[in-house]
């Protein structure tokens, strides 16, 4: 799948299986019991699957009970800190009745794992999970059949515990998974819908399990793409222009002669040097003089919002109902507001990295990527070789957040390796990471709403520029409403194109950022809801409860309000703020308490409560860690993060001027979940973050009277708002 | 200038041939293949590269290798003793004070330096001592808890 396609995420199309005869890979596996699965069979699982197409050549999920009794679980998903290395093993272990520590996760290896479109969109638990469960259930039945044969009893007389099969009323009669699988190679495809355990039978699901990869991470043994060292490997350094979008005109490498052993790569727009010493490569790259054709800046940090509104005049209606004119007529109070959100960087602690080498014609690569199969295809195209000639290997990823789906660094590394004929390592500098990030797009939200004398919302008119539709379906009951996306191209991701000039309206690269677009639209909606409540003199909690038309959301908000103790007394200078949002099937309610110093405008978060309805919670501990993580990261975009630029010249290129959240601004965070063990699991990696901006902005207003209409809510903006207030 | 430089790394004497002017981070990761110490920025801004030198937590990306001649350096790989995790490592696992794990070695080494100076830090003292170590995954609260827990454990052992 092309990165641009993934950007349509704003995620509609989440699966496009590649055609590849995968029977070959079966040869690569050793013995044991292997469960093969066609993606079409997913439709057996109550529509939990991502695809309904029957395609028998495309095996898509499987596991292997190995001859030593351990179990390999193969998934195309990757681990970047979201904890699925643990939660997927957990569902497998529960279904197959083995210890979670007997499960080996094989992730994101394009030769061993089933195709997967990519790890994003909080899809793993919703889609990979049921497949793995079904495969495990199938394996369990096969093991029981074989055990019944061996032990000469009927299958129903058997039970399994921790990888050992017993005769129920004669536990001394038993056989282990290892004994059953020894010397066998059984390949089975799922044929009928397997019996998946009911929640009442869960042993592990719903239990809090500490991350199984923590040990390797606290000892420094966990390997990331820049940690691979190969014989004869050289380090590559790419020569970059100062301005994004520049095109190469000429290269002067005459000064390179002073460096022994340096090689220049000059192909197309790629100019790089390689050397077997990292620091020499870095020094030499600075001596290469490239003349660039630099695009003229058309906009900057402050003019961007007007620029977007001027450039994008086309729209399509995402959702509407009732009649806005009637809505206006029956409203007692009408409020019109404009909200802005700037570009945000992903800024993972691991910069984009890749290490690769050629084995004959074949490329072997480790890369920090959220899309190993997408990368495989990109590399095959870039190198003009067949898909099978590219092997993307399993590796840990040091954070992604949507930024590592584009794979520019991996393509650069592969082209350089091909050109110089040596194994290559390419680790982007922090500056490159900022310049070539695909930022969360700047966005404008115009909102007008009306409310009647009883405090019921009667009209909602929402115009969104560049933030997509994700999470914008209304959960407030408003009869007359309209939500418009400016330029339908907007919702198609990166190509926020001005049709006339056929160029992006954004001066920098843009893409998916943890819960794409939803952070911006939720900030605008929830700030506005608060503004209206204030204007008509209603408590923001009561106003929301009165207007919600979504049972799960109402219950989630009530849970948050109880946990937070909304009616308690506030200390001087403190304020409370609520925001609600929906993402990846999960309902989120966040309530924050902040202190605002009115002299300096400084905000200190004091407490955050996050209630979520995410259906079945597979690993409550893991879900809590993810939620805390999302909120902690969210405090950064709410309070500090802002990409400064003039045209394609990104000025915030390090953590000194692109400030992310730190220890001291992270308050006590309490996460609560609605108890719904029998429901389908929903997304967990992204949802919580969407409410942080709105909840902070509302709490700041409550504490100080400063209404800030632009993210982040910086001290400067608070002081400006206070002057106006 | 090409030269050979000696120091103690994780309890063992090492001598490396250097070009001169390399950062300690480069020497540890690329010459000595100890890749547990991470590169996060190379500018002193993130703390991913933190190691302990003569009992002080420092950023290896900001030090020239010449500055550590004859010094004693401890990296994440040197924390385990006789195959046992250090209390900080144990506490990070127990509190699940990590997600992607990329900041973790730097966090643990910085905390190691902090606990040497202040064996029983308060929550605020931990926050002050750790403030300049960044974690994009947002594990801060758990890291604070882990460090306090490790402090308590370490004091018990004396
Ligand atoms: S890598 Fe040394 S402080 Fe960031
Ligand atoms: S755990 Fe990912 S940066 Fe800290």
TrEMBL record, chain A:
Q: Which Gene3D superfamilies match?
A: Aldehyde oxidase/xanthine dehydrogenase, a/b hammerhead, Aldehyde oxidase/xanthine dehydrogenase, molybdopterin binding domain
- Using the record's annotation, list all stretches that form the Aldehyde oxidase/xanthine dehydrogenase a/b hammerhead domain: 219-296
Q: Which GO MF terms are attached to this record? A: oxidoreductase activity
Output the InterPro entries linked to this UniProt entry.
Answer: Ald_Oxase/Xan_DH_a/b, AldOxase/xan_DH_MoCoBD1, AldOxase/xan_DH_MoCoBD2, AldOxase/xan_DH_Mopterin-bd_sf, N-heterocyclic_Hydroxylase, OxRdtase_Mopterin-bd_su_IorB
Region ranges (Disordered): 492-519
Q: What is this protein called?
A: CO or xanthine dehydrogenase, Mo-binding subunit
Species per Swiss-Prot/TrEMBL record: Lutibacter agarilyticus
UniProtKB/TrEMBL annotation, chain B:
Q: Where are the transmembrane segments?
A: none
Which of UniProt's keywords are assigned here?
2Fe-2S, Iron, Iron-sulfur, Metal-binding, Oxidoreductase
Gene3D superfamilies (UniProt xref): 3.10.20.30, [2Fe-2S]-binding domain
What GO terms are given for molecular function?
2 iron, 2 sulfur cluster binding; metal ion binding; oxidoreductase activity
Q: Does the keyword Oxidoreductase apply?
A: yes
- Would the keyword Metal-binding be found if you checked this record's keyword annotation? yes
Could you tell me which PROSITE patterns the record lists for this protein? 2FE2S_FER_1, 2FE2S_FER_2
Domain 2Fe-2S ferredoxin-type span(s) in chain numbering:
3-79
* Annotated InterPro entries: 2Fe-2S-bd (IPR002888), 2Fe-2S-bd_dom_sf (IPR036884), 2Fe-2S_ferredoxin-like_sf (IPR036010), 2Fe-2S_ferredoxin-type (IPR001041), 2Fe2S_fd_BS (IPR006058), Beta-grasp_dom_sf (IPR012675), Diverse_Oxidoreductases (IPR051452)
Superkingdom of origin: Bacteria
Q: What is this protein called?
A: Carbon-monoxide dehydrogenase small subunit
- The species is Lutibacter agarilyticus
